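TA notes, week 10

Several of you asked for a full example with nothing omitted. So below is the full record: structure tokens for the whole chain, then the designed sequence directly under it. When grading your own attempts, check the secondary structure regions first.
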């Protein structure tokens, strides 16, 4: 039989509970509140064990709510490239140079004047360290332009 002893709840954990209770998330407003707490915790590199435990449980609660209520639209191709640029704070010129795509060509792709071809997709996949498949739609591909660059 396990020892029956109680330990005091650490103060950092109590403060977090004061910000957001660990219970099922039931609304978008609660989701936004939970994500704000998560963002604060994730940005820190000095979490106590109690704060790490709280973070783990709150992450599970957010994931459970999002799995049931948030439907994400899959993105691919140029839309995905633009999202990666924005999320990572990268410039078009840096990505073009790093991926080995001419800057003017990359700009034309982002503006919709050219389509991604297989050469571009492979270069971007290598640069971003992802599978080329992430740039392709479920059925078919917009990579139908001949490799001319």
């Amino acid at each position: 039989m396990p020892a029956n002893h109680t330990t005091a709840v650490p103060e950092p954990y109590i403060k977090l509970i004061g910000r957001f209770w660990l219970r099922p998330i039931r609304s978008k407003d609660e989701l936004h509140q939970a994500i704000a707490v998560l963002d604060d915790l994730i940005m820190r590199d000095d979490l106590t064990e109690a704060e790490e435990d709280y973070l783990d449980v709150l992450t599970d609660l957010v994931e459970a709510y999002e799995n049931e209520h948030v439907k994400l639209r899959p993105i691919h191709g140029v839309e995905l490239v633009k999202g990666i640029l924005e999320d990572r704070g990268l410039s078009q010129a840096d990505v073009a140079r790093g991926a080995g795509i001419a800057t003017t060509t990359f700009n034309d792709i982002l503006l919709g004047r050219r389509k991604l071809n297989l050469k571009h997709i492979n270069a971007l996949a290598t640069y971003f360290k992802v599978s080329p498949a992430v740039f392709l739609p479920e059925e078919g591909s917009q990579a139908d332009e001949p490799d001319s660059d």
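Residues 30 and 86 are 26 Å apart (CA to CA). Use that as a sanity check on your answer.
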